[in-house]
């Protein structure tokens, strides 16, 4: 519906429907647009040539209160002798029926003053209404502002909060006393962030108010960690199937918080279906459109909406308004539009002349008590949008006051022209409206900022349900955009009653629970960033904050604790005297050395006995000393590795064992040669006397000494650190081989001597002697070889300090094998059976 005007043409109204209106004569007529009814009639088309007159349906009591507030304010201003002296304000107020088409039609009727066609000659005349207060809806305000903006006719809206209307190029003649939704979206984002609601659902009306508000909210949430699970729109047709699907989506979602951006009639339809499906476990967030509206509140559904948190416009108390509203009477105002419909809506009765007793609706008496039963119409405890209407009328009056104060020749227009107040031109009034700065009778300073709208301030309201089931709107906080960043939102959480059954506890609305320290977030494929899995940090990595996105690797020589929350120094591992294993091995070493020393003492004490002398006491003494060294060399393996003990370990071990095996080998050879020398013509003993035995032992030992010296000079064993334990949780201190060849040669040489000794002893085990030492040497060498054969795979496969423990065990086992197998029988005779320690018993039978 547009108005077209040009040279020689006429301005025609494409649609001619005009809703009911209220008119009062005055010097300046202020237009008003209010959605008193919420259901517009079916449109008709000019080409049908049939003019169908039908009325709007469904009364909105709150909107009617807004309309009456405008009338009240005009009358209050007219009684003020100072504000507009000698000027009387009038009004022409029309019903918009909550539809864009009827709103535009009503607006055009206001400014043209008639339904019909305005001739081209009249297109330039001043309109009957130079300014309009309205509309309540953003989508309708956009349509009207686009149309009337061509003629610079100013509009002052009291409830159209869409941020799109802040476009000064497109809507240059549009002003409003309600803040832009851009601030409300920002306030909502702040609230969600403050309460850690990172997983929310959004429901919006399918109009400019809902769509624009949702876009602003999503933009505010872009740089936060808040995600939207679903976005549903309430259709204007209020299709029951679509409403049902929307509520089912709300019910099935894991988001416990539902943010709404819709006008009250749309929310009413939605909440009726919410009650049908009994969706109780939700925390509702309301916009200023319905945060203090009880039109659709049913005490039976108190559990559904209890705890609702909403943003409401600033509240004010308007003196005298309540009494003025209570004057409504169909008896005193029989011909006034809207009164009949409002009265029937208030009391649920009928004022029809043709009322019949059989009717389901009782007949109205006309004397019902409005003040007591006026419901939301007479409720002046939450005057918010109503106060915006009040301020809009005063803004126009203040602009006219300033126009009247203009001094000729000093006016703001061309050649210092001042406006002609009785014949107001919309463009001149728009200029003065943009510059108003006044204080209302309530005491508030009112002015329009650069974008022709007030600064944003919202009360944060909480729905408390009393024992009777009635709702009380309790202010629990405030959002003031004029305050600095981070200080805009102020809320007292102790006063809040929460929804969704939580009551005294802040509801939890998250897609995934926060990841505790020691874990990191891993995004779930195909889902928003708020949905994630918590994966434990890998070994050696930590996270010490909640919701860490990554784990940090510990520095060198540090490792993660069991909880993966902090780095602790790595455990330095080596075989020490503080370990149980180290203590046991040390005790075994010292015990072995003590036993060896005891045997040596016993042999020395009985050195002149036949048994000791028969077995070459000198070799026995040397063997016992070397065995003692074998036991004691274990102590070098226990303790923190250092260069000196790393080089001494295998050197001392290798040389001691070679001396030991060389002595045993010498004994074995002597046994074999001694028995061979008893044969006729044999003279072998002359080559195996004490000197030759010493020389043999020396030569055998010299070879091992040379190997050890070369090893130490070319590639000595040195201490080193390596990672061990669980993926490197420990620092293992150990001695490197330096040269594998050197280690193999040392062990190989010992093994070679042991095998030779074992073979010779095996061949001599059955020689005729009452005390044939060869058989004991055979057993000792068998044990020795078995231990060192088992040592190789155990040594290679043992980790950390257990490598050293395996080597120590091999040394102790082989040493004990030699000591016990060779010297236990002798000690038994020397100490327990001395009668057998005679030369006679030593001789062969």
UniProtKB/TrEMBL annotation:
The keyword Cell membrane applies. It is a multi-pass membrane protein. The chain crosses the membrane at residues 581-604, 619-639, 651-675, 695-714, 740-764, 776-796, 808-832. Pfam families: 7tm_3 (PF00003), ANF_receptor (PF01094), NCD3G (PF07562). InterPro entries: ANF_lig-bd_rcpt (IPR001828), GPCR_3 (IPR000337), GPCR_3_9-Cys_dom (IPR011500), GPCR_3_9-Cys_sf (IPR038550), GPCR_3_C (IPR017978), GPCR_3_Ca_sens_rcpt-rel (IPR000068), GPCR_3_CS (IPR017979), Peripla_BP_I (IPR028082). The keyword Oxidoreductase does not apply. GO terms for cellular component: plasma membrane. Residues 581-845 form the G-protein coupled receptors family 3 profile domain. It is found in: Cell membrane. SUPFAM superfamilies: Periplasmic binding protein-like I (SSF53822). PANTHER family: C-FAMILY ODORANT RECEPTOR OLFCD2-RELATED, CALCIUM-SENSING RECEPTOR-RELATED. This is G-protein coupled receptors family 3 profile domain-containing protein. It comes from Cyprinus carpio carpio.
């Amino acid at each position: 519906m547009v108005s077209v005007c040009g040279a020689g043409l006429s301005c025609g109204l494409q649609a001619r429907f005009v809703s009911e209106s209220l008119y009062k004569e005055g010097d300046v007529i202020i237009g008003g647009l209010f959605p008193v009814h919420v259901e517009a009639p079916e449109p008709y088309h000019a080409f049908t040539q049939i003019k169908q007159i039908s009325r709007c349906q469904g009364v909105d009591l709150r909107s009617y209160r807004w309309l009456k507030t405008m009338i009240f304010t005009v009358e209050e201003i007219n009684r003020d002798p100072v504000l507009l002296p000698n000027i009387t304000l009038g009004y022409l107020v029309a019903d918009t029926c909550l539809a864009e088409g009827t709103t535009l039609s009503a607006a055009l009727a206001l400014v043209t003053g008639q339904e019909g066609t305005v001739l081209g000659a009249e297109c330039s005349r001043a309109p009957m209404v130079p300014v309009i207060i309205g509309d309540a809806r953003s989508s309708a305000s956009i349509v009207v502002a686009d149309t009337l903006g061509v003629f610079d006719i100013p509009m002052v809206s009291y409830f159209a909060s869409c941020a799109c209307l802040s476009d000064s190029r497109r809507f240059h003649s549009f002003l409003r006393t309600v803040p832009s939704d851009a601030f409300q979206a920002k306030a909502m984002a702040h609230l969600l962030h403050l309460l850690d609601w990172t997983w929310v659902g959004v429901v919006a009306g399918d109009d400019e108010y809902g769509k624009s508000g949702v876009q602003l909210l999503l933009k505010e949430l872009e740089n936060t960690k808040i995600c939207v699970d679903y976005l549903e729109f309430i259709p204007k047709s209020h299709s029951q199937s679509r409403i049902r699907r929307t509520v089912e989506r709300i019910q099935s979602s894991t988001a416990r918080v539902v943010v709404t951006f819709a006008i009250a009639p749309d929310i009413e339809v939605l909440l009726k279906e919410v009650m049908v499906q009994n969706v109780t476990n939700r925390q509702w967030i309301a916009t200023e459109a319905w945060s203090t509206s009880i039109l659709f509140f049913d005490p039976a559904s108190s559990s559904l909406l209890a705890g609702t948190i909403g943003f409401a416009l600033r509240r004010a108390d308007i003196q005298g308004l309540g009494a003025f509203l209570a004057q409504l009477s169909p008896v005193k105002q029989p011909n006034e539009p809207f009164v009949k419909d409002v009265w029937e809506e208030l009391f649920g009765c009928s004022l029809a002349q043709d009322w019949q007793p059989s009717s389901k609706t009782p007949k109205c008496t006309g004397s019902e008590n409005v003040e007591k039963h006026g419901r939301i119409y007479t409720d002046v405890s939450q005057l918010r949008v109503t106060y915006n209407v009040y301020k809009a009328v005063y803004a126009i009056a203040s602009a006219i006051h300033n126009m009247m104060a203009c001094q000729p020749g000093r006016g703001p227009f061309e050649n210092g022209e001042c406006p002609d107040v009785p014949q107001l031109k919309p463009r001149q009034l728009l200029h003065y409206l943009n510059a108003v700065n006044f204080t209302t009778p309530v005491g508030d300073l009112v002015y329009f900022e650069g974008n022709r709208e007030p600064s944003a301030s919202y009360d944060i309201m909480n729905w408390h349900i009393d024992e009777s089931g009635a709702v009380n709107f309790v202010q629990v906080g405030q959002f003031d955009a004029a305050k600095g960043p981070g200080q805009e939102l102020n809320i007292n959480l102790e006063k809040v009653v929460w929804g969704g059954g939580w009551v005294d506890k802040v509801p939890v609305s998250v897609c995934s629970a926060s990841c505790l320290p020691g874990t990191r977030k891993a995004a779930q494929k195909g889902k928003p960033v708020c949905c994630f899995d918590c994966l434990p940090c890998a070994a050696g990595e930590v996270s010490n904050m909640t919701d860490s996105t990554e784990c940090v690797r510990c520095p060198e020589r540090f490792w993660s604790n069991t909880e993966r929350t902090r780095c602790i120094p790595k455990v330095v591992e080596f075989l020490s005297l503080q370990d149980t294993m180290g203590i046991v091995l040390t005790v075994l070493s010292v015990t072995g050395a003590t036993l060896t020393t005891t045997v040596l003492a016993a042999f020395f004490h009985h050195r002149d006995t036949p048994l000791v002398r028969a077995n070459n006491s000198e070799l026995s003494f040397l063997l016992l000393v070397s065995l003692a060294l074998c036991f004691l060399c274990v102590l070098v393996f226990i303790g923190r590795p250092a260069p000196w003990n790393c080089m001494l370990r295998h050197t001392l071990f290798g040389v001691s064992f070679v001396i030991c095996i060389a002595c045993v080998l010498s004994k074995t050879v002597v046994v074999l040669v001694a028995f061979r020398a008893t044969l006729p013509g044999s003279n072998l003993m002359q080559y195996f006397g004490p000197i030759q035995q010493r020389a043999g032992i020396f030569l055998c030992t010299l070879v091992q000494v040379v190997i050890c010296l070369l090893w130490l000079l070319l590639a000595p064993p040195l201490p080193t650190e390596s990672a061990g334990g669980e993926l490197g949780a420990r620092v293992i201190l150990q001695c490197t081989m330096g040269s594998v060849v050197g280690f193999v040669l040392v062990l190989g040489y010992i093994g070679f001597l042991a095998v030779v000794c074992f073979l010779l002893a095996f061949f001599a085990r059955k020689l005729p002697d009452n005390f044939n030492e060869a058989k004991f040497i055979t057993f000792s060498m068998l044990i020795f070889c078995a231990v060192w054969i088992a040592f190789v795979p155990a040594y290679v496969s043992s980790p950390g300090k257990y490598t050293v423990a395996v080597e120590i065990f091999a040394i102790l086992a082989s040493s004990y094998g030699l000591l016990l197998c060779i010297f236990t029988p002798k000690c038994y005779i020397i100490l327990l059976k001395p009668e057998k320690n005679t030369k006679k018993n030593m001789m062969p039978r």
